[in-house]
Design a protein that fits this description.
By secondary structure, this protein is mainly beta. It folds into six domains: 94 residues, Beta Barrel (OB fold (Dihydrolipoamide Acetyltransferase, E2P)), CATH 2.40.50; 73 residues, OB fold (Dihydrolipoamide Acetyltransferase, E2P); 68 residues, Nucleic acid-binding proteins (OB fold (Dihydrolipoamide Acetyltransferase, E2P), Beta Barrel), CATH 2.40.50.140; 59 residues, OB fold (Dihydrolipoamide Acetyltransferase, E2P) (Beta Barrel), CATH 2.40.50.1010; 83 residues, Beta Barrel (OB fold (Dihydrolipoamide Acetyltransferase, E2P)); 71 residues, Beta Barrel (OB fold (Dihydrolipoamide Acetyltransferase, E2P)). 5% of the residues lie in helices and 49% in strands. The chain is built from three helices and 35 strands. The strands form four sheets. Strands 1, 2, 3, 4, 5, 6, 7, 8, 21, 22, 23, 24 and 25 form a 13-stranded mixed beta sheet that branches. Strands 9, 10, 11, 12, 13 and 14 form a six-stranded mixed beta sheet that branches. The N terminus is likely disordered.
Length: 492
Protein backbone atom coordinates (compact mmCIF):
# COMPACT_ATOMS: atom_id res chain seq x y z
CA UNK A 1 0.00 0.00 0.00
CA UNK A 2 1.41 3.36 -1.04
CA UNK A 3 0.03 6.78 -0.17
CA UNK A 4 -0.54 9.64 -2.60
CA UNK A 5 2.99 10.94 -2.20
CA UNK A 6 4.57 7.60 -2.98
CA UNK A 7 5.59 6.96 0.63
CA UNK A 8 4.79 3.63 2.20
CA UNK A 9 3.19 4.33 5.60
CA UNK A 10 5.33 1.78 7.43
CA UNK A 11 8.53 3.69 6.75
CA UNK A 12 8.83 5.39 10.14
CA UNK A 13 12.57 5.25 10.76
CA UNK A 14 14.82 8.27 10.46
CA UNK A 15 15.81 8.90 6.88
CA UNK A 16 19.52 8.96 6.11
CA UNK A 17 19.96 11.79 3.65
CA UNK A 18 23.12 11.95 1.57
CA UNK A 19 25.65 14.72 1.94
CA UNK A 20 24.48 16.02 -1.43
CA UNK A 21 20.92 16.42 -0.17
CA UNK A 22 22.10 18.11 3.01
CA UNK A 23 24.19 20.49 0.97
CA UNK A 24 21.09 21.31 -1.02
CA UNK A 25 19.49 22.47 2.21
CA UNK A 26 22.18 25.10 2.50
CA UNK A 27 21.40 26.19 -1.02
CA UNK A 28 17.71 26.33 -0.09
CA UNK A 29 18.42 28.89 2.61
CA UNK A 30 19.29 31.40 -0.09
CA UNK A 31 16.69 30.30 -2.63
CA UNK A 32 13.10 30.63 -1.49
CA UNK A 33 11.58 28.78 -4.45
CA UNK A 34 13.73 25.66 -4.21
CA UNK A 35 17.17 24.31 -5.04
CA UNK A 36 18.76 21.63 -7.17
CA UNK A 37 20.50 18.42 -6.19
CA UNK A 38 23.66 18.69 -8.33
CA UNK A 39 24.13 14.91 -8.37
CA UNK A 40 20.74 14.07 -9.89
CA UNK A 41 19.49 17.43 -11.21
CA UNK A 42 16.40 16.91 -9.06
CA UNK A 43 14.77 20.21 -8.17
CA UNK A 44 13.79 20.38 -4.52
CA UNK A 45 10.47 22.16 -4.23
CA UNK A 46 10.20 24.83 -1.56
CA UNK A 47 7.49 23.89 0.88
CA UNK A 48 5.47 24.90 3.92
CA UNK A 49 3.59 22.55 6.23
CA UNK A 50 1.30 23.02 9.22
CA UNK A 51 -0.02 20.00 11.05
CA UNK A 52 0.29 17.40 13.78
CA UNK A 53 3.47 15.38 14.34
CA UNK A 54 2.24 11.81 13.86
CA UNK A 55 5.57 10.00 14.33
CA UNK A 56 9.21 10.71 15.08
CA UNK A 57 11.95 9.80 12.65
CA UNK A 58 12.93 12.62 12.12
CA UNK A 59 9.34 13.96 12.20
CA UNK A 60 6.25 13.12 10.15
CA UNK A 61 3.78 15.93 9.43
CA UNK A 62 0.76 15.45 7.15
CA UNK A 63 2.16 12.12 6.07
CA UNK A 64 5.52 13.53 4.93
CA UNK A 65 8.82 12.64 6.60
CA UNK A 66 11.02 15.69 7.22
CA UNK A 67 14.71 15.45 8.06
CA UNK A 68 15.51 17.76 11.01
CA UNK A 69 19.28 17.39 11.31
CA UNK A 70 20.00 20.97 10.21
CA UNK A 71 16.70 22.57 11.22
CA UNK A 72 16.25 25.77 13.18
CA UNK A 73 13.85 24.56 15.88
CA UNK A 74 11.85 26.82 18.17
CA UNK A 75 9.71 25.45 21.03
CA UNK A 76 7.61 28.09 22.78
CA UNK A 77 10.05 30.75 21.60
CA UNK A 78 13.19 28.93 22.78
CA UNK A 79 15.78 27.92 20.19
CA UNK A 80 16.86 24.26 20.39
CA UNK A 81 19.78 22.28 18.98
CA UNK A 82 17.73 19.15 18.20
CA UNK A 83 14.20 17.84 17.79
CA UNK A 84 14.33 15.97 21.12
CA UNK A 85 11.57 18.12 22.68
CA UNK A 86 9.25 17.76 19.68
CA UNK A 87 6.63 15.13 20.47
CA UNK A 88 3.93 13.17 18.70
CA UNK A 89 0.69 15.14 18.94
CA UNK A 90 2.25 18.60 18.76
CA UNK A 91 1.01 20.94 16.04
CA UNK A 92 3.99 22.50 14.27
CA UNK A 93 4.65 24.86 11.38
CA UNK A 94 7.68 24.27 9.20
CA UNK A 95 9.43 25.73 6.19
CA UNK A 96 11.69 23.58 4.05
CA UNK A 97 11.92 21.68 0.78
CA UNK A 98 10.53 18.44 -0.63
CA UNK A 99 12.12 16.02 -3.07
CA UNK A 100 9.33 15.33 -5.61
CA UNK A 101 10.92 11.99 -6.52
CA UNK A 102 11.19 10.45 -3.02
CA UNK A 103 8.38 12.49 -1.44
CA UNK A 104 10.61 13.20 1.56
CA UNK A 105 11.31 16.64 2.94
CA UNK A 106 14.01 18.64 4.66
CA UNK A 107 12.87 21.11 7.32
CA UNK A 108 14.77 24.39 7.38
CA UNK A 109 12.78 25.84 10.30
CA UNK A 110 10.23 24.33 12.72
CA UNK A 111 8.04 26.20 15.20
CA UNK A 112 5.96 24.79 18.04
CA UNK A 113 3.91 26.85 20.48
CA UNK A 114 1.57 25.30 23.03
CA UNK A 115 -2.01 26.53 22.92
CA UNK A 116 -2.14 26.94 26.68
CA UNK A 117 -0.32 25.64 29.76
CA UNK A 118 -2.16 25.74 33.05
CA UNK A 119 -4.35 23.84 35.49
CA UNK A 120 -7.63 22.06 34.86
CA UNK A 121 -10.45 24.25 36.18
CA UNK A 122 -12.22 22.66 39.16
CA UNK A 123 -15.55 21.09 38.22
CA UNK A 124 -14.98 21.49 34.45
CA UNK A 125 -14.27 17.87 33.48
CA UNK A 126 -17.01 16.26 31.38
CA UNK A 127 -15.99 12.64 30.81
CA UNK A 128 -18.92 11.97 28.45
CA UNK A 129 -18.22 14.91 26.15
CA UNK A 130 -14.44 14.56 26.59
CA UNK A 131 -14.05 18.22 27.54
CA UNK A 132 -12.48 20.29 30.31
CA UNK A 133 -11.46 23.91 30.88
CA UNK A 134 -8.04 25.44 31.45
CA UNK A 135 -8.16 29.02 32.75
CA UNK A 136 -11.67 29.25 31.31
CA UNK A 137 -10.66 27.97 27.87
CA UNK A 138 -12.73 24.97 26.71
CA UNK A 139 -10.64 22.00 25.55
CA UNK A 140 -12.21 19.24 23.43
CA UNK A 141 -10.56 15.83 23.11
CA UNK A 142 -11.35 13.19 20.49
CA UNK A 143 -10.03 9.97 18.94
CA UNK A 144 -7.03 11.81 17.49
CA UNK A 145 -5.87 13.33 20.79
CA UNK A 146 -2.49 12.08 22.01
CA UNK A 147 -2.07 11.84 25.77
CA UNK A 148 1.24 12.33 27.57
CA UNK A 149 1.68 11.53 31.24
CA UNK A 150 -1.77 9.92 31.20
CA UNK A 151 -2.72 6.24 30.94
CA UNK A 152 -3.43 5.91 27.26
CA UNK A 153 -6.42 6.56 25.09
CA UNK A 154 -9.08 6.77 27.78
CA UNK A 155 -10.01 10.36 27.06
CA UNK A 156 -10.21 12.82 29.94
CA UNK A 157 -11.15 10.18 32.53
CA UNK A 158 -7.66 10.17 34.12
CA UNK A 159 -7.63 13.94 34.57
CA UNK A 160 -8.45 15.52 37.89
CA UNK A 161 -9.24 19.04 39.04
CA UNK A 162 -6.13 21.23 39.22
CA UNK A 163 -3.95 18.86 37.17
CA UNK A 164 -1.26 20.81 35.37
CA UNK A 165 -1.51 20.32 31.60
CA UNK A 166 0.02 21.54 28.35
CA UNK A 167 -2.37 21.64 25.40
CA UNK A 168 -1.56 21.68 21.70
CA UNK A 169 -4.60 22.09 19.50
CA UNK A 170 -6.61 23.89 16.85
CA UNK A 171 -9.06 26.69 17.47
CA UNK A 172 -12.62 25.84 16.50
CA UNK A 173 -16.17 26.78 17.42
CA UNK A 174 -19.15 24.80 18.64
CA UNK A 175 -22.57 25.14 17.00
CA UNK A 176 -23.57 27.73 19.61
CA UNK A 177 -20.50 29.83 18.74
CA UNK A 178 -18.46 28.87 21.81
CA UNK A 179 -14.76 28.84 20.94
CA UNK A 180 -12.90 25.64 21.76
CA UNK A 181 -9.42 24.20 21.43
CA UNK A 182 -9.61 20.79 19.72
CA UNK A 183 -6.68 19.13 21.42
CA UNK A 184 -4.16 17.18 19.37
CA UNK A 185 -2.06 16.67 22.53
CA UNK A 186 -2.81 16.75 26.25
CA UNK A 187 0.29 16.48 28.38
CA UNK A 188 -0.03 16.22 32.16
CA UNK A 189 2.99 17.16 34.25
CA UNK A 190 2.09 17.85 37.87
CA UNK A 191 5.77 17.87 38.83
CA UNK A 192 6.68 20.69 36.46
CA UNK A 193 8.36 23.71 38.02
CA UNK A 194 7.90 25.83 34.88
CA UNK A 195 5.60 28.82 34.71
CA UNK A 196 2.07 28.62 33.38
CA UNK A 197 1.62 30.08 29.90
CA UNK A 198 -1.34 31.89 28.35
CA UNK A 199 -1.70 33.84 25.13
CA UNK A 200 -4.12 36.50 24.05
CA UNK A 201 -4.79 40.03 22.86
CA UNK A 202 -4.28 43.11 25.04
CA UNK A 203 -6.97 45.75 25.58
CA UNK A 204 -7.84 48.44 28.13
CA UNK A 205 -4.18 48.87 29.11
CA UNK A 206 -4.01 51.22 32.10
CA UNK A 207 -0.36 52.18 31.86
CA UNK A 208 3.14 50.96 31.13
CA UNK A 209 4.19 50.44 34.75
CA UNK A 210 2.50 48.65 37.68
CA UNK A 211 -0.88 48.50 36.02
CA UNK A 212 -3.40 46.14 34.50
CA UNK A 213 -5.09 45.23 31.23
CA UNK A 214 -7.63 42.83 29.80
CA UNK A 215 -6.37 39.73 28.02
CA UNK A 216 -8.75 38.17 25.49
CA UNK A 217 -7.99 34.49 24.98
CA UNK A 218 -8.52 32.74 21.66
CA UNK A 219 -11.96 31.55 22.76
CA UNK A 220 -13.08 35.10 23.56
CA UNK A 221 -12.82 34.62 27.33
CA UNK A 222 -11.21 37.47 29.21
CA UNK A 223 -8.76 37.62 32.09
CA UNK A 224 -7.69 40.71 34.00
CA UNK A 225 -3.90 40.88 34.15
CA UNK A 226 -2.29 42.76 37.05
CA UNK A 227 1.39 43.34 36.32
CA UNK A 228 4.29 44.66 38.38
CA UNK A 229 7.19 46.48 36.75
CA UNK A 230 7.59 48.25 33.42
CA UNK A 231 6.21 46.66 30.25
CA UNK A 232 8.12 46.26 27.02
CA UNK A 233 7.24 49.10 24.65
CA UNK A 234 5.59 46.66 22.26
CA UNK A 235 2.92 45.71 24.79
CA UNK A 236 0.08 48.01 23.73
CA UNK A 237 -3.62 47.66 23.06
CA UNK A 238 -4.27 45.09 20.26
CA UNK A 239 -0.84 43.44 20.81
CA UNK A 240 -0.78 39.64 20.89
CA UNK A 241 1.23 38.52 23.92
CA UNK A 242 2.42 35.45 25.77
CA UNK A 243 2.37 35.64 29.56
CA UNK A 244 4.30 33.34 31.89
CA UNK A 245 3.24 33.28 35.50
CA UNK A 246 3.97 31.11 38.51
CA UNK A 247 0.37 31.07 39.74
CA UNK A 248 -3.02 30.35 38.21
CA UNK A 249 -5.69 33.05 37.85
CA UNK A 250 -7.82 33.69 40.91
CA UNK A 251 -11.34 34.93 40.31
CA UNK A 252 -10.48 35.77 36.71
CA UNK A 253 -7.41 37.81 37.73
CA UNK A 254 -3.90 36.84 36.65
CA UNK A 255 -0.86 38.32 38.38
CA UNK A 256 2.38 38.57 36.40
CA UNK A 257 5.74 40.27 36.33
CA UNK A 258 6.08 42.76 33.46
CA UNK A 259 9.23 41.08 32.20
CA UNK A 260 7.23 37.86 31.73
CA UNK A 261 4.83 39.53 29.27
CA UNK A 262 6.19 39.13 25.76
CA UNK A 263 4.85 40.29 22.40
CA UNK A 264 4.52 37.31 20.05
CA UNK A 265 4.12 36.95 16.32
CA UNK A 266 1.24 34.54 15.82
CA UNK A 267 2.63 33.07 12.62
CA UNK A 268 6.43 33.43 12.43
CA UNK A 269 6.73 30.85 9.67
CA UNK A 270 4.60 31.42 6.59
CA UNK A 271 3.96 29.98 3.16
CA UNK A 272 5.54 31.96 0.32
CA UNK A 273 4.54 32.47 -3.29
CA UNK A 274 5.30 29.30 -5.28
CA UNK A 275 5.62 27.05 -2.21
CA UNK A 276 4.14 23.58 -2.14
CA UNK A 277 1.87 23.70 0.92
CA UNK A 278 0.39 20.97 3.10
CA UNK A 279 -1.76 22.25 5.93
CA UNK A 280 -4.35 20.78 8.24
CA UNK A 281 -6.72 22.59 10.53
CA UNK A 282 -10.26 23.78 11.18
CA UNK A 283 -12.24 25.48 8.42
CA UNK A 284 -13.66 28.96 8.89
CA UNK A 285 -15.17 31.62 6.60
CA UNK A 286 -16.37 29.00 4.11
CA UNK A 287 -18.07 30.47 1.01
CA UNK A 288 -19.25 28.55 -2.05
CA UNK A 289 -19.65 30.73 -5.15
CA UNK A 290 -20.55 28.79 -8.26
CA UNK A 291 -17.83 26.26 -8.96
CA UNK A 292 -15.33 27.75 -6.50
CA UNK A 293 -15.07 27.47 -2.73
CA UNK A 294 -13.00 29.78 -0.56
CA UNK A 295 -12.21 29.25 3.10
CA UNK A 296 -9.54 29.79 5.74
CA UNK A 297 -7.48 27.24 7.70
CA UNK A 298 -5.35 28.65 10.53
CA UNK A 299 -4.81 31.98 8.81
CA UNK A 300 -4.19 30.52 5.34
CA UNK A 301 -6.67 31.66 2.67
CA UNK A 302 -7.60 28.78 0.37
CA UNK A 303 -9.34 28.43 -2.98
CA UNK A 304 -10.63 25.08 -4.22
CA UNK A 305 -13.02 23.80 -6.83
CA UNK A 306 -16.46 22.88 -5.55
CA UNK A 307 -15.69 19.25 -6.41
CA UNK A 308 -12.56 19.20 -4.25
CA UNK A 309 -14.40 21.01 -1.46
CA UNK A 310 -17.22 18.47 -1.18
CA UNK A 311 -18.03 18.00 2.50
CA UNK A 312 -16.10 21.10 3.59
CA UNK A 313 -17.88 23.48 5.97
CA UNK A 314 -17.09 25.77 8.87
CA UNK A 315 -15.85 23.79 11.87
CA UNK A 316 -14.76 20.78 9.79
CA UNK A 317 -11.17 19.57 10.08
CA UNK A 318 -9.41 19.23 6.72
CA UNK A 319 -6.02 18.55 5.20
CA UNK A 320 -5.25 20.69 2.17
CA UNK A 321 -2.47 20.30 -0.39
CA UNK A 322 -1.64 22.75 -3.14
CA UNK A 323 0.54 25.66 -4.23
CA UNK A 324 0.73 29.24 -3.04
CA UNK A 325 -0.15 31.86 -5.62
CA UNK A 326 0.77 35.14 -3.99
CA UNK A 327 -1.13 34.97 -0.66
CA UNK A 328 -3.72 32.38 -1.77
CA UNK A 329 -3.34 28.62 -1.45
CA UNK A 330 -4.78 27.03 -4.60
CA UNK A 331 -5.77 23.52 -3.56
CA UNK A 332 -4.98 20.42 -5.58
CA UNK A 333 -6.41 18.13 -2.89
CA UNK A 334 -8.77 18.62 0.03
CA UNK A 335 -9.37 15.77 2.46
CA UNK A 336 -12.08 16.00 5.09
CA UNK A 337 -11.10 14.26 8.33
CA UNK A 338 -13.31 11.25 8.95
CA UNK A 339 -14.50 10.69 12.50
CA UNK A 340 -12.78 7.71 14.11
CA UNK A 341 -15.80 6.23 15.83
CA UNK A 342 -14.50 2.71 16.42
CA UNK A 343 -11.99 1.24 18.81
CA UNK A 344 -10.23 -2.01 19.50
CA UNK A 345 -7.84 -3.07 22.24
CA UNK A 346 -6.16 -6.45 22.30
CA UNK A 347 -3.30 -8.63 21.09
CA UNK A 348 -1.69 -8.38 17.66
CA UNK A 349 -2.35 -11.66 15.86
CA UNK A 350 -0.78 -10.69 12.52
CA UNK A 351 1.32 -7.84 11.12
CA UNK A 352 2.64 -7.05 7.64
CA UNK A 353 4.70 -3.86 7.82
CA UNK A 354 5.41 -3.81 4.08
CA UNK A 355 1.70 -3.91 3.26
CA UNK A 356 0.76 -1.57 6.11
CA UNK A 357 -1.68 -4.04 7.67
CA UNK A 358 -2.14 -5.78 11.01
CA UNK A 359 -4.76 -7.74 12.91
CA UNK A 360 -5.85 -7.41 16.53
CA UNK A 361 -7.45 -10.60 17.83
CA UNK A 362 -8.34 -11.38 14.23
CA UNK A 363 -9.75 -7.93 13.34
CA UNK A 364 -7.91 -6.63 10.27
CA UNK A 365 -6.65 -3.02 10.32
CA UNK A 366 -4.66 -0.94 7.88
CA UNK A 367 -2.50 2.10 8.50
CA UNK A 368 -2.13 5.22 6.37
CA UNK A 369 0.43 7.98 6.05
CA UNK A 370 -1.22 10.04 8.79
CA UNK A 371 -1.64 7.25 11.35
CA UNK A 372 -0.48 8.45 14.76
CA UNK A 373 1.92 6.12 16.58
CA UNK A 374 2.55 6.14 20.34
CA UNK A 375 4.66 3.60 22.22
CA UNK A 376 3.75 3.27 25.89
CA UNK A 377 5.17 -0.26 26.12
CA UNK A 378 7.67 -1.62 28.61
CA UNK A 379 10.65 -0.42 26.52
CA UNK A 380 9.34 2.52 24.45
CA UNK A 381 10.84 3.10 21.01
CA UNK A 382 11.27 6.79 20.11
CA UNK A 383 11.03 6.35 16.34
CA UNK A 384 8.00 4.09 16.62
CA UNK A 385 5.91 2.76 13.73
CA UNK A 386 4.26 -0.32 12.30
CA UNK A 387 7.63 -1.93 11.59
CA UNK A 388 8.25 -2.01 15.38
CA UNK A 389 5.09 -4.02 16.05
CA UNK A 390 5.13 -7.78 16.50
CA UNK A 391 2.66 -10.60 17.01
CA UNK A 392 1.83 -10.78 20.72
CA UNK A 393 2.15 -7.02 21.32
CA UNK A 394 -0.80 -5.46 23.13
CA UNK A 395 -2.22 -2.29 21.61
CA UNK A 396 -5.19 0.01 21.40
CA UNK A 397 -6.34 1.50 18.11
CA UNK A 398 -8.88 4.13 17.11
CA UNK A 399 -10.37 3.34 13.70
CA UNK A 400 -12.95 4.19 11.06
CA UNK A 401 -14.37 2.26 8.11
CA UNK A 402 -13.33 3.63 4.71
CA UNK A 403 -15.20 3.53 1.42
CA UNK A 404 -13.76 0.08 0.69
CA UNK A 405 -15.07 -1.32 3.95
CA UNK A 406 -11.59 -1.56 5.47
CA UNK A 407 -10.90 -0.48 9.05
CA UNK A 408 -8.32 2.34 9.02
CA UNK A 409 -6.31 3.01 12.17
CA UNK A 410 -5.96 6.74 12.85
CA UNK A 411 -4.06 6.15 16.07
CA UNK A 412 -2.14 3.17 17.43
CA UNK A 413 -0.77 2.92 20.96
CA UNK A 414 1.28 -0.01 22.19
CA UNK A 415 0.52 -0.77 25.83
CA UNK A 416 2.61 -2.05 28.73
CA UNK A 417 2.51 -5.78 29.44
CA UNK A 418 0.70 -5.24 32.75
CA UNK A 419 -2.34 -4.03 30.81
CA UNK A 420 -2.51 -6.97 28.44
CA UNK A 421 -5.51 -8.82 29.83
CA UNK A 422 -8.30 -6.38 28.88
CA UNK A 423 -10.04 -6.59 25.53
CA UNK A 424 -12.16 -3.72 24.20
CA UNK A 425 -14.19 -3.47 21.02
CA UNK A 426 -16.34 -0.59 19.83
CA UNK A 427 -18.14 -0.83 16.51
CA UNK A 428 -21.36 -1.16 14.55
CA UNK A 429 -23.43 -4.33 14.95
CA UNK A 430 -23.09 -6.03 11.58
CA UNK A 431 -25.42 -8.98 12.20
CA UNK A 432 -27.68 -10.66 14.76
CA UNK A 433 -28.01 -14.45 14.64
CA UNK A 434 -31.42 -15.80 13.65
CA UNK A 435 -31.80 -17.38 17.08
CA UNK A 436 -30.71 -14.15 18.83
CA UNK A 437 -27.77 -15.88 20.52
CA UNK A 438 -24.93 -13.87 18.99
CA UNK A 439 -24.08 -10.50 17.46
CA UNK A 440 -21.25 -9.75 15.04
CA UNK A 441 -19.07 -6.66 15.55
CA UNK A 442 -16.07 -5.92 13.30
CA UNK A 443 -16.24 -9.50 12.06
CA UNK A 444 -16.14 -10.99 15.59
CA UNK A 445 -19.04 -13.17 16.70
CA UNK A 446 -19.95 -12.46 20.32
CA UNK A 447 -22.14 -14.80 22.40
CA UNK A 448 -24.79 -12.80 24.21
CA UNK A 449 -24.95 -15.40 26.98
CA UNK A 450 -21.41 -14.31 27.92
CA UNK A 451 -22.59 -10.72 28.29
CA UNK A 452 -25.95 -11.16 30.02
CA UNK A 453 -26.99 -13.61 32.71
CA UNK A 454 -30.49 -12.17 32.76
CA UNK A 455 -32.47 -13.03 29.60
CA UNK A 456 -34.56 -9.90 30.08
CA UNK A 457 -31.48 -7.68 29.91
CA UNK A 458 -30.38 -9.55 26.78
CA UNK A 459 -33.77 -9.05 25.13
CA UNK A 460 -33.74 -5.34 26.00
CA UNK A 461 -30.22 -5.01 24.58
CA UNK A 462 -31.26 -6.65 21.29
CA UNK A 463 -34.42 -4.54 21.05
CA UNK A 464 -32.32 -1.37 21.00
CA UNK A 465 -30.10 -2.57 18.13
CA UNK A 466 -30.55 -1.71 14.47
CA UNK A 467 -28.20 -3.80 12.36
CA UNK A 468 -25.79 -1.65 10.36
CA UNK A 469 -26.43 1.44 12.47
CA UNK A 470 -26.22 0.80 16.22
CA UNK A 471 -22.79 1.19 17.82
CA UNK A 472 -21.94 -1.03 20.78
CA UNK A 473 -19.08 -1.23 23.25
CA UNK A 474 -17.80 -4.60 24.40
CA UNK A 475 -15.31 -5.47 27.12
CA UNK A 476 -13.69 -8.72 28.12
CA UNK A 477 -10.44 -10.44 28.93
CA UNK A 478 -7.91 -11.92 26.57
CA UNK A 479 -5.51 -14.81 27.08
CA UNK A 480 -3.23 -15.32 24.11
CA UNK A 481 -5.65 -14.94 21.23
CA UNK A 482 -8.71 -16.19 23.13
CA UNK A 483 -11.25 -13.58 24.24
CA UNK A 484 -13.83 -13.97 26.97
CA UNK A 485 -16.50 -11.26 26.72
CA UNK A 486 -17.97 -9.98 29.98
CA UNK A 487 -19.72 -6.65 29.29
CA UNK A 488 -21.80 -5.12 26.51
CA UNK A 489 -23.60 -1.80 26.13
CA UNK A 490 -25.14 0.48 23.53
CA UNK A 491 -22.90 3.45 22.72
CA UNK A 492 -25.01 6.59 22.99
Amino acid sequence: MTNIDGIKPNHRKAAKFSGVILLSLLAFAGCQNGSTDPASDTTLVAGFAKGVITAKGSIFVNGIEYETTSSEIMVDGVSLDSDSLLEVGMIVALEGSIDPVTGKGIAQAIDYSSSIEGTVDAGSIDTVAGTFDVFGLLVQTDAFTVYKGLPGLTGTLPLADNDRVEISGMLSALTDGTKVIRASMVKRDNDSAEDFKVRGTVSALSGSSDGNFSLTLENGAELTVNFAGTLNAGVVDTAYVKIETSSAPVGGVLSASADKIEVKEQHRLKAHDGDRVEASGIVSAFVLDGGTATFTVDGINISASSTLAAGVADGVKVEVKGSMESTLLVASKVKVEQDADREIQGVITAVDAAAGTLAVNGVALKVVANTIYEDEGDLPVEFFGIDDLAVGDFLEAKTYEDELGDLVAVKIERKQSEATNEMKLKGVVEAIAADDTTITVQGIEVKLADLFVDTGEQASFLADITVGTTMVELKGTVSGTEVTWTEGSIDD
